[in-house]
Amino acid sequence: MHSDEAGRRRYLAYALILAAALTAYAHHHIAQTIHQPSRLVAIDTLGFCWLAFSLIAAHTHIDVRPSRRQTRQLDERRVTVIVPLKNEDPTTFRALLDSLAAQSRLPQRLHIIDNGSTNTDCQRAFHQWAATSPAGMQVEYTVTGSIGKRAAQVLAFDADPTADIFVTLDSDTVLDPNAIAEGIAPFSRTDVTSVAGLLLCLNQSKNLLTRLVDLSFVMSFLNGRAAWSRLGSVVVNCGGLAFYRADVVRKYQDQYVTQTVWGRRVASGDDRMLTCYALLEGRTVIQERAIGYTLLPERMSHLVRQRIRWWRSFFWGGTWLIKTFPITKPAWGMVLWQFASFALYTFVLPLVLIVHPVETRGLAVPFLIYMAGLSYVRSVRYLVVRRPDQSYASQLGSFALAPLSSLLNVFLCSILQYAGLLTFLKTGWSTRATVEVGITGQPDLAPATVIGVQGTDPDAPTTPIPVITGATAPLAKLYDPITEITLETHLPRHART
């Protein structure tokens, strides 16, 4: 057994044992305190089984590694990158363009659709960049009115009828140098129709809120999507970095752009629907080495509006999936369980936080201790990501905030969930009216790694390529003896030891 795989399985065993011990302790304490069997045993058992499944499936996830012949075939695929844009920070947008130019596998085409921006800052940034864009990559910037993100994407779909793979990016995504090469690798398997990339928070060190949100956001990929990927049933990609088989997109694009919920035209939930259409036709997976960085909200008001929008699409999108998908699809049962969990949580939360404390005079304390311990178990995979702009000490500091992040999620994933349910007929966007978040300066583009996940070379060292100073960034040439490909990339500046 490969040492990384053995370590991953051992890591999982420790996490499961700890979760089981904490669950047993909580049940024992409840029984001792109220002198009767816990009313939550059945619910806790179901919850623990779901947790165990998620951890086991996530920790055993393996990225696709194409053979040499498959790699050559992938090199012949036409890849088109599509970026809808509206009121984006121009510095972040330029960082996106620079990261595309630095890809180890360049796309054949880049299409930016400016969907009603109130200024021309990004348009000017694009034309400055396009003057020195890589040879052989077609680039286009289309300005439209406020036609909506879905219509903007469909415009780009129609503009390249020969594309084999569509890559959808948000305008605030900055790509790891190997993001596209890794993201298209699963398409070497003919049954794969969609690939989710792994998104990390570009502004995670901005303030306490971004650190807390970064932890839960990254775990939604490394736990949630990785677990569902084991069944080929990722039900929602993140629009910041996703890959789709073009023929599947074309088959459903008319439904996609005209979708309604109770007679109302849907503008949001685009990533959910593209993923669901792909899942109808094949397997939808995650490739953890396809890494991108995206901006997350830095203010609570922005975060609240974003998450309510996400929860709205969860309810109408999940309902659509249950009505549309056959029962034999694993995603059908898992989405049904999500709805059931929401109903159970509605019952359990007041019982644990109000009823039991009144009955037992302080039962909530061991519950909170249990939840704190469980938050570390759920967040343990956060430590397998090695990003070039974050020290290990900073990463450990973020991991230490897991209980506080879980407490924030009680608000984000319960109270706001009800807000989303009560307002799910609001199908438009509640953000992007103005530029709400941005970056200062150019980010570090050195490759990130995910420890223990097989990629193009599972035996390669996990230490990121060092970042070097100098007037001209040096050219690094990396030869992969397995794929017989030489990759060339400029090492980014900014000194690091």
Radius of gyration: 23 Å
Strand content: 15-25%
Assign the CATH architecture of the largest domain: Alpha-Beta Complex
Basic shape: globular
Mean pLDDT value: 81
By DSSP (H or I, 4+ residues per run), the number of helices equals: 15
* Overall tally of domains: 2
> Which fold name fills CATH's third level, the topology of the largest domain?
Spore Coat Polysaccharide Biosynthesis Protein SpsA, Chain A
Percent helix range? 40-55%
Largest sheet properties: 8 strands, mixed
- The termini sit apart by 33 Å
Layout of secondary structure:
Blueprint: H1 3-34, H2 41-59, H3 68-75, E1 79-85, H4 90-101, E2 109-115, H5 121-130, E3 138-144, H6 149-159, E4 165-169, E5 173-175, H7 179-183, E6 192-201, H8 208-229, E7 241-245, H9 246-258, E8 260-261, E9 264-265, H10 270-281, E10 283-294, H11 300-324, H12 330-360, H13 364-378, E11 385-386, H14 392-400, H15 402-422, E12 449-450, E13 475-480, E14 485-490
Parallel strand pairs: 1-2, 1-4, 2-3, 6-10
Antiparallel strand pairs: 4-7, 5-10, 6-7, 8-9, 11-12, 13-14
Helix pairs in contact: 1-2, 1-13, 2-8, 4-5, 6-9, 8-15, 9-10, 11-12, 11-15, 13-15
